[in-house]
Design a protein that fits this description.
about 100 residues, mainly alpha, 3 helices
Length: about 100
């Protein structure tokens, strides 16, 4: 599960923080009633496999945009991570990685 902050700027300073149950109810309601706004607000918390949750709303241009980004970002992140790992392995085999020289 992703940790999602549901803090609102409309809250009073002295008001108590909403409970976890209140936060989950808010997220569920937002997801069900306004899925495009949910994706817009919490895109950074979504994983590639979460894209399936929005299949019914894929005709919405906002959701389609973020789903496309979700799929593309994951692949580019993996390429970069693999490139770094490969370079680290090369440095280790050359004896340069963790070298005092």
């Amino acid at each position: 599960k992703a940790v999602v902050s549901t803090q609102s700027t409309g809250r009073q300073r002295d008001a108590a923080d909403p409970s976890k149950e209140d936060q989950m109810n808010y997220l569920k309601t937002l997801f069900q009633e306004k899925p495009s706004q949910f994706v817009y607000r919490y895109f950074s918390c979504l994983k590639t496999e979460d894209g399936n949750l929005f299949a019914d709303n894929s005709s919405d241009p906002t959701i389609a945009h973020y789903l496309k980004q979700l799929n593309n970002n994951t692949n580019s992140h993996k390429v970069i991570r693999n490139r770094r790992y490969k370079r680290m392995q090369e440095l280790i085999s050359e004896g340069v990685y963790f070298s005092d020289e």
